[in-house]
Write a structure and sequence with these properties.
heterodimer; A: 262 residues; alpha/beta; Rossmann fold; 3-stranded antiparallel β-sheet; 34% helix; B: 275 residues; mainly alpha; ABC transporter involved in vitamin B12 uptake, BtuC
Chain lengths: 262, 275
């Protein structure tokens, strides 16, 4: 049976002005996937997210989201950004944050929430167990609760793909476990792409793992084989251990050998 | 006391001034909240000072200075806004440059205009005597425009203020909303300068919102409270400046700053106690 990829990237190069951050990236993701991408800081994780969301135009190559250009297709993407500390004291309630998931284009098209909008918001809050706290302001919440609000906001968009950027960066370990359990549940209906530098946490929950470090190492393997884990693990560790940013490994299969010689 | 206040406001120019404070407070409360929450105080300062170039040019060519100020502030709001959208650091420099160019153009053209021009000081420092019937009309129009915009576009404004990237991903019209907001900042600055002057208008724009933000946690509430506070400061400023024969603008700003410092102190003490 032919399966339509929800995200499809081929021969993609992207970066900022003369500085290429991602090169020759090929990646296909399908409806029931739950992909964890790990990689070191500066390895291109954020750039990849920006390209998928149509916030950065790639220099070369092709990318489609739900079969369309990122700017079109991104309305099917529930984006869960990394929590920004400077937003912490912004005066906004949980409900109003989640209502952002129902934003539509147009200067005056968001004056009222339709009954369907309200339903979607309530449902999204229920799914993350945050409905009771809907009147709270964001700065009254713990890190784990804030993350749940962001996931609710993404769910309120009624997405086909959930895209999470470092979801556990400001969350304690117990909330982080709950978070991954929730994501596993959501994956029954929604494709999930999770990007993080935290390998140990995500490897337990995701179905497949890839590694972003200038290039994307990903084989869409259903099971996390020892070899797969190792190669994914190799690249950030190698980078952190030897302090060589932007080093491109010739091929990650040779990683082990490479490490020994160092 | 009440008798005194009644006497003060029996004069036509004081009634105009009071009405003017109420109108501009509506715009100031709403726009000021957006300026504070979006952290674009310096951008607003740039818009205000660029407006002075319009005052000078209009004066030189024998046009209404208010018209010149409105045109200049809207135009500079758009230019600085587009630059700000592209790069925040690049815009910072541009804001500084346009800020000074506006002032320089204003000063030179006013100097080149022959005749008596004491009245022009009122654009810099404000004057309650300067509020005319046509000014009042303009204030009403601008304030109602601002109110209509925020009522119809509240969720857009809240969304782009809180998380611009997410709004973009939702394909909200972030640029259009942002630029409309900046033009309204420009218009608000221009109509408010009749009361407190160009130089102090940024203080009136930011201080009431900053106070309201200390106590409230909802953008709508902050807008309402800053509108009330702005009206209160203007009213008290009018009364005090009339009694003491001091200029209204600085009196209003000193009052507002005093309350701001006091509020911040109260909040600090509360925070320490709760620990």
């Amino acid at each position: 049976m032919f399966r339509q990829a929800v995200i499809s990237i081929s021969d993609l190069w992207a970066g900022y002005e003369a500085d290429t951050v991602l090169e020759d990236v090929n990646f296909d993701m399908y409806q029931d996937d739950y992909v964890g991408l790990i990689g070191p800081n500066g390895g291109g994780k954020t750039t990849l997210i920006r390209v998928i969301l149509g916030l950065l135009q790639p220099d070369r190559g092709k990318i489609t989201v739900m079969g369309a250009s990122p700017k079109e297709g991104r309305r099917h993407v529930g984006y869960v950004p990394q929590f920004q500390v400077e937003d912490k004291h912004f005066p906004i309630s949980v409900w109003d944050v989640v209502a952002m998931g129902r934003l539509k284009p147009g200067l005056f098209s968001n004056t009222f929430l339709s009954p369907h909008d309200k339903e979607a918001i309530e449902k999204a809050l229920e799914q993350t167990n945050m409905l009771d706290l809907r009147k709270r302001t964001m700065n009254e919440l713990s890190g784990g609760q804030r993350q749940r609000v962001y996931i609710s906001r993404a769910l309120a968009t009624e997405p086909k793909i959930l895209l999470l950027d470092e979801p556990t960066s400001s969350v304690d370990s117990q909330s982080s476990t709950q978070l991954y359990e929730l994501l596993a549940e959501l994956n029954e209906r929604i494709a999930i792409l999770l990007i993080s530098h935290d390998l140990t946490a995500i490897s337990t929950y995701v179905k497949t793992i890839g590694c972003v470090n200038r290039q994307l190492f990903y084989h869409h393997s259903k099971e996390i084989t020892e070899d797969m884990l190792h190669s994914a693990y190799e690249c950030p560790i190698d980078l952190i251990a030897h302090g060589l940013p932007h080093r491109v490994l010739p091929s990650h299969q040779h990683g082990e050998e490479h490490d020994r010689t160092n | 006391m009440i008798e005194q206040i009644r006497t003060i406001f029996s004069y036509g120019f004081m009634q105009n001034a009071l009405l003017a404070s109420l109108w501009i407070s509506l715009a100031i409360g709403i726009i000021g909240t957006l300026v504070v929450l979006n952290r674009i105080v310096s951008l607003s300062g740039g818009i205000a000072h660029a407006a002075y170039g319009g005052v000078g040019l209009a004066y030189y060519f024998g046009q209404d200075p208010m018209l010149g100020a409105l045109l200049f502030s809207s135009l500079s709001a758009l230019v600085m806004g587009v630059a700000h959208r592209k790069s925040k650091t690049g815009a910072d420099t541009l804001i500084g440059v346009m800020w000074s160019i506006g002032m320089a153009v204003g000063i030179i053209f006013i100097a080149m205009t022959p005749g008596y021009k004491a009245n022009l000081m009122s654009y810099l420092f404000g004057s309650i005597l300067a509020v005319s019937a046509s000014d009042l009309k303009l204030m009403a129009v601008v304030s109602l425009l601002v109110l209509a915009f925020v009522v119809l576009s509240y969720r857009n404004l809240l969304a782009i203020s809180y998380d611009e990237t997410f709004s973009t991903v939702r394909n909200a019209h972030v640029n259009l909303i942002y630029l409309t907001m900046l033009v309204l900042i420009g218009l608000t600055v221009v109509v408010s300068m009749r009361m407190v002057g160009l130089i102090l208008v940024i203080a009136l724009l930011t201080i009431p919102a900053a106070i309201a933000r200390i106590f409230l946690k909802d953008m709508r509430g902050i807008m309402a409270l800053s509108t009330f506070l702005s009206a209160l400061f203007c009213f008290l400023g009018l009364v005090i400046s009339y009694q003491t024969n001091l200029q209204t603008g600085p009196v209003i700003i000193l009052l507002a700053s005093g309350v701001y410092l006091l509020s911040a102190l109260v909040k600090k003490v509360q925070a320490v106690r709760n620990k």
